[in-house]
Each structure stands twice: as structure tokens, then as C-alpha cells.
Amino acid sequence: MTSSTALKICVLLSTYNGEHYLAEQVHSILTQTGRGTAFTVQIYIRDDGSSDNTLKIIQQLTNDHPDTVFLLTDDLGNAGVRASFLQLVKHAPNDAALYFLADQDDVWEPNKVQVFLEYYAQTTQALPIGLYSDLWVADQNAQVTGQKMSQVAHWQQLTIDYEFLSFNYRITGAAFAFNARAKELLALISIAEINASNMHDSFFALTIAACGQLIGIADPLVRYRQHAHNVVGAAGHHKTWREHWQSAFAFPGQKIFNNVLLNEFLHRQHLRLRTAHETAVMADYLAYYHAAHCWQRWQAALMIKAHISQPHPWLNVAKLMVTNVTKPYQLPQN
């Protein structure tokens, strides 16, 4: 029996040809410790044009769990992972305590929701709040390899803010959740804006960091399955040397452009960064993007150095000086 005081949890899951792993992932969500007593769960799935048996599996799940698993349909077709997750954010109900992003091929640890709720209870819930945990790197059978994402990605700190995320990746969508205030904010992002970003989860996190607060959880609460069909993996071991070279310059370009994109979004929504320091951080990225001459770009690159918390910041500054790393990126016309 469900407690009348149980909190509502929404899980937002985008699928694409996920027939091999989807049922296992959904099972790990349905068997969360505390479900039915401390909280209820609703899973909203949007399929992004699968050509395998994924839709049949979703239909079976909705038949077996009619009050828990729901299929979101729209006319976007194969919109891509970024737009697909944004659609889920836009169309999920507005009354949940927390909204969890979920990948089709991972497995949640049994206490994931419980731990997230414990951390969320300690926050200022009137703000847009995002929470993220560490992850176990798992093999194709979802068996833990013994490595955490924090080890693979060399996390130097757990607590992060807008300035940190302005030139760093940290949050993996599979281990990310946010409250209703954040959901309301993210739902204002347009399809054109999310498609212009490097990835939905990093742009969601950057937006929440700019307007609210992010909470880190050191516990690994997701088994982040690595297999041949990952869209984004943990270690990047499938890349060629040429792809590594291209991504080396794509990384700083994407990070700078995400800040420019965020600035346009905040301006369109009549929002602003919360502090003078954050406004100054944003100004450095805008100066780089809008630089008319090499020397202006070099000056901006030197200012951006102060926001790089990775080892060897001069390596990234050199990239910013050698070429205009934001040249491939154009602001969308909303």
C-alpha cells in the first residue's frame, strides 16, 4: 500500500534501439528501496524512432505497469537524444519532488532514489536544485569493473558551481536529478537551443548552476554500462587518433559556446546570473566569442584561464589562442 505522504518521483527515459538492456534498467527503477512507502515512481519514456523491438518492450512495460510506466508520443520523430530528453522535461507532470534522467542501458543501484532524497531534504528547495552522483563503470553485462567515473575522469572536487562548469564537464545525465523548480526552468529551453548545445545533460547542469544550486553525492549509484553501441562512453577507448585530435579542440569550443548559449537563454527569459563574479565569468566567454581580432581573442583567452580548474590550464589557453575554437558554432534562431 502506498503511503499518503509518499513523495512523487518522475523518471525521464529516452530510448533508441535499446531492446537488449531496457527491461533490466526499468526493473532496477521499479525495485528501488522505499518505493511505495517513502516515494512513488512514474516512468515516462519517449522513443526516438527505434527500428528494433524497443517499442514492443515499452508496450509490454506499460501493459504490466499501467499506473507507473507511460509512453510519451509526439510528432518529432527521430529528434536526437538532446531534443528527446528535452521533450520529456517539457511534457512530464509538474508535481514531482525530483525528476531523474535515465539512460536505457544502465542499471540503478537499489538505494539510488533513497540517497538522492536524503540529500535533497537538506537543500533550499525553493531554488532550482540539481543533484548528481558518482557512477560505477560497468561492463556490457552491467557488472562493476571496480572503477568509478570519478577515477576515470579524474574528478578533483565534488562541490561545483557555475564557474566550474563553465569550462568543465562533470555531470552525467544517467546520474542526474533535479527538482520541480529546475524542471520549470529547463522546460523554457527551446529545441533549437538544446540542439545547439554539446549535450542536454551538460547544458541542463550549466543552466541550473547559473540559476540555483548543484549538490554532489560521492556514492556511485548507477552502473554505467559500456558496450559497443554507447552514444557517449566513459573512457573514449573507441576513438581513433584523428578523433582524439579533433575532440581536443572541440572541447574548449563547446564549453565556451555553451556559456554563450546560456547567456542568450537567460536574456530571452529575462533572467540573470546571481552574482557579480558569475557575471564577470560569463563576460570573459562572451568576449572570446565576439572577438573581432586575434589580439582580442588572445586577451579573452588569458582571462578564461582563471576559470579553468583542470591540470595544465595553459594547454587549453594555447588552443584558444591558436585558433578560434568557437568558429563552428552558431547561435540558433528561436
TrEMBL record:
Q: Which Gene3D superfamilies match?
A: Spore Coat Polysaccharide Biosynthesis Protein SpsA, Chain A
Which top EC class is named for this enzyme in its record? transferase
What molecular function terms (GO) are annotated for this protein?
glycosyltransferase activity
Q: Keyword set for this entry?
A: Glycosyltransferase, Transferase
Q: Which InterPro entries match?
A: Glyco_trans_2-like (IPR001173), Nucleotide-diphossugar_trans (IPR029044)
Q: Where are the membrane-spanning stretches?
A: none
Q: Where would I find the Glycosyltransferase 2-like domain in this sequence?
A: 10-125
Name a Pfam family for this protein: Glycos_transf_2
EC assignment: the record states 2.4.-.-
Highest taxon in the source lineage: Bacteria
Is Iron given among the entry's keywords?
no
Q: Which PANTHER family match?
A: GLYCOSYLTRANSFERASE, UDP-GLCNAC:BETAGAL BETA-1,3-N-ACETYLGLUCOSAMINYLTRANSFERASE-LIKE PROTEIN 1
Name of the featured protein: Glycosyltransferase
Species of provenance: Lacticaseibacillus baoqingensis
